[in-house]
Amino acid sequence: MLGVGSTMALAGCLGGDDDDDDGDGDDDGEDAPEAGADEPDPLDLSQDPPEVSGEYHATQASSFDTINPIYNTEAGAGTAIGYALDQGYTFDFDNEVVPLLFEDIYTEDEGETWVIEFRDNLEFSDPYGQYTAEDYVYYVQEIHQSDTFPSANSPDWAGVEIEQTGELEAVATPPNPNIIWPETFAPLEYPIPKELLEPYVDAEDSEGLQQDEELLDLSFNGNLGPYNLEEWIRDGGTQYSRNDEYYLRDLADEYPMFGEAPYFETAQIEIIEEESSRIAAIETGETDNVPLPPDRGEQFIEDEDTMVVLEPTPFNTILSVNMRDNGWTAGPGNLFRVKEFRQALAAAIDKFEYIEGIANGFADPHYTWQPEFSEWFPGTDDLTLWGNPEEGVYGEEARDLVEEALDQIDEDYSYDGDVLVGPDDNQVELEIYYNAASDTQELAVDFYNNQLEQNIGITLDTNAIDGTTFSENYWSADPEGGTDTIDGEEVEWDAPTPNNPGPRSVTPDEEWDMATIFGLNTYPRNPLTNDVFFEGPNSSYNPVGYYPEFDAEGIIQNMRNAGTRDELRDAAAELFANLNEEQPYIMISFGDDIEAYNPAVRGPVPEFSNGWDFPAWHKDE
Predict the structure, then answer these.
(1) 581-611: string of b/e by CB count within 10 Å (b at 16+)?
(2) pLDDT-derived band at 19, boundaries 50, 70, 90
(3) Which of 417, 418, 561, 573 is most buried (most C-beta within 10 Å)?
(4) CA distances for 239 relative to 231, 265, 388, angstroms
């Protein structure tokens, strides 16, 4: 976004699957039911500027740990920082790069090097002067690439060579050629003055940098963002005043509506933790924007005093299955490791019944590791539509897949009528964990239980758990490393992580079978980022112990070697077709963020890039 929430695109793998959150290619699958939300037109930025008036008042559920732009990792705080500081560029509704602080970012050698050109009208607050390539390069080299100052963005700059080549120009060389380097978000940095950083760098004072007052009150922002931060109330939110010197006004020849931006005299983000109080705030007109849980979406769609916009998200709803040694607690062996059994789980769950009954219609079916709005979604011609009763594989066919899986294991599991029984002749019962704070997840696990018992004869023991407890004791473990022999080849975990601590024999403290706690980011702008999940058994993020049965490493290397977007699209299609077949996570749906707005607000639209033009948002009073 321009100004608002730029760092949301930098959010990591995990997406909460709580009540407030939940393309291209052929559209051969049956569409999920569509909720009748508002579909306002995008702003026409070629129009004359509107009047400046009033306040924009947004509401969030959670407070921020920090708004220091160097160390923040939270999406909500990223939004708060983004009101006061722009970054280098953003993406419009056509997924095209829109330069902001950068005048341009481009490659002339198929992604081997990238030239970054800075605008000449960028100024910090006194006494720091002009923002130039020197500030940018110093920040990258002395903070992100320094062992002394491990920052949120340090991993993005590992192995990248960057040098200043002019007052307003820098050249970056990624460790591997990358034709979509801007889409990785690695070049996106908040502007930080070199002179502010230097004393901490010289003293190697990491703690001092984290607590620096100017970084915490963003008072150095100059003309680099649409609003000036006036106050950060730690548990209450942030308050802003209009920045009369905003640099983006100089783009009026290209975007006339930016000519007097921004168009609110003041802005604020208010923190209201209680859901009912947040909803009351939009009902009574006390706020301009509140995210809604799925079970309240339809109510507000029907309310003429509220505008409801559905924003597609990159985070999925999945059923995670534990392929590690402490998974499959129903008896000997681990059927989760058999591809056909994972396919059976996907085929046994009716995606459309889930979307209509659990997600209240605010979701789309999830068949492979990209949402349909992504440029890289391969279409459905070459995908199996698991859990699609009309045009895919569902119901009795799921039982057939279980039978195929049973033929591949040594343990004595079999069917007694419609019931899958283990070696002890008892029905297979598996443990499933869901987030205790999520009513939606509680409904979902009951639905999964009914579907799995009906279609493949297994039952689930449902367990509510705190999300943090699950993350620490079930989902992650101390990295140990080690080796495993896979398809006759020895694979080494030489860089284990808490979310892939080693081979399947390395397990968290607590055993578990299935979980709905987390959704994951599918990275629809940069499919290469999915290498963290799927490049191999020893990829950096693999809590479930998934071992690909296809040449994932080779396909991902082909994606890296692509010299054109078409070549990358072809290689990505092969990856996503294989993930559709293997179901490393049981893919259910892609939800929408359900955003309720004051109907006087002009700017919000039902797009993934909603908010990129935030400085032009205004109210028709």
Answers:
(1) bbbbbbbbbbbbbbbbbbbebbbbbbbbbbb
(2) very low
(3) 573
(4) 5, 11, 47
Model confidence pLDDT, tens digit, residues 335-383: 999 999 999 999 999 999 999 999 999 999 999 999 999 999 999 999 9
Residue 171 has pLDDT above 50, yes or no: yes
CA distance 297 to 553: 42
Greatest alpha-carbon pair distance for the chain in Å reads: 79
Strands 55-60 and 266-271: parallel
Residue type, 284: T
Distance CA 39, CA 450 (A): 35
What's the whole-number mean pLDDT along residues 304-317? 95
CA gap 591, 522 in Å, rounded: 12
pTM comes to: 0.86
**In the predicted model, what is the mean pLDDT of residues 41-53?**
96
Rounded to whole angstroms, how far apart are CA atoms 153 and 290?
A: 29
How far is 428 from 419, CA to CA, in rounded Å? Answer: 8
Cα separation, 73 vs 79, whole angstroms:
11
Short-list 180, 189, 125, CA closest to 156: 189
Average pLDDT over residues 82-106: 97
Measured in Å, how far apart are the chain's first and last C-alpha atoms? 24
